[in-house]
Automatic annotation (TrEMBL):
Organism field: Nocardia uniformis
Position of the signal peptide: none
UspA domain sequence ranges: 29-161, 171-295
Pfam families: Usp (PF00582)
Record family assignment: Belongs to the universal stress protein A family.
The protein's name in its UniProt record: Universal stress protein
SUPFAM superfamilies cross-referenced by the UniProt entry: Adenine nucleotide alpha hydrolases-like
Xref: CDD domains: USP-like (cd00293)
Length: 317
């Protein structure tokens, strides 16, 4: 991982490691914490995810890169940030069944969140972003922060509007192949971690919801055989599929009300992912449950089935 986003840090591994004055660059689930209820919900969700995956949880707070005493390590603003992170650390440890088995790292970083999180995405297992509310305000906030990560991050990004429910399926909306492959594989793993079923939502589009009248796209090209192929890595996961017509975002929003997670991709247009990317941007704005967005490079790396190991490594939920 690039170290540019980690300069001027006052950080420590709070659990399971000594205070080394730096952040372990290994894969972890990263979540920004600013004290808001949305950020705390995101941290709670991220802690549960980190415990299930058995990877560290990294809580980050950003302070402005201002050259004033309060903003320097040891200054008033830094001390307040450390107190905030300690509160968040205690909160998330109280939410997981076995807190002694969850490594929580905290760090106060000077810099801009968007730039630093994008750099962290080069090695992170997952970046989690919290948001709250709905409507115009949420769209504005997402447009300036979370959507930038959704478009540009190198690792998956989870958008969390609320902590989520403990029951219900994982949803995997698919439109075409091979863009569907990493979505299905990530969905399988997410369902396995949650001990629940995967609901594959196949989108049937006579006319794309975002296309002008007269434009035709063939129905979903994802077959039962292709779904079964992706299931081989998690044969114990129960899989159901439904086909929806019309506006896919509206249909998936209805399903998401009773779901634990929606897994979607932003696949490259060259690999049949243009419609999937547009759908992802709608879902992160409107879905009530957490949405896990896979980066475009994940789907590109799949090719046409000849690089399955690359898919398995990069499509982890």
């Amino acid at each position: 991982m690039s170290t540019r986003g980690l300069r001027n840090t006052d950080c420590a591994n709070e659990i399971g490691a000594s205070d080394s004055g730096g952040i372990d660059p290994g894969p972890a689930i990263v979540v920004g914490v600013d004290g808001s209820s949305a950020a705390m919900h995101a941290a709670e969700w991220a802690a549960t995810e980190a415990a299930a995956r058995q990877v560290p949880l990294r809580l980050i707070h950003f302070v402005a890169p201002v050259d004033k005493p309060a903003f320097r390590p040891g200054g008033t603003r830094f001390r307040q940030a450390r107190d905030l992170l300690e509160t968040a650390r205690k909160m998330v440890l109280g939410k997981v069944p076995e807190p002694d088995r969850l490594e929580v790292q905290t760090a106060v970083l000077r810099g801009h969140a968007d730039t630093a999180l994008l750099e962290m995405s080069e090695s992170a297992a997952l970046i989690v972003v919290g948001t709250s509310g709905a409507g115009f305000l949420t769209r504005v906030v997402l447009g300036s922060t979370a959507l930038a990560l959704v478009r540009n991050a190198h690792c998956p990004v989870a958008i969390v509007r609320r902590p989520g429910i403990a029951t219900g399926p994982v949803l995997a909306p698919v439109i075409g192949w091979p863009a569907a492959a990493p979505i299905l594989m990530a969905g399988m793993r997410a369902a396995a971690l949650r001990h629940t079923e995967l609901l594959v939502v196949r989108i049937w589009q006579g006319r794309p919801w975002a296309a002008p009248p007269g434009h035709y796209v063939a129905p979903s090209g994802v077959t039962d055989a292709q779904i079964a192929q992706c299931r081989r890595t998690h044969p114990d996961v129960e899989v159901r599929s439904v086909t929806v017509a019309g506006n896919p975002a509206e249909a998936i929003e209805r399903f998401s009300a009773a779901a634990q997670l929606v897994v979607i991709g932003t696949a490259d247009h060259r690999y049949g992912g243009g419609a999937t990317a547009a759908l992802a941007h709608e879902l992160v704005r409107h879905c009530d449950c957490p949405v896990l967005v896979l980066p475009a490079e994940t789907a590109v790396s799949t090719g046409h089935g000849g690089r399955s190991h690359a898919v398995s490594a990069s499509a982890r939920p």
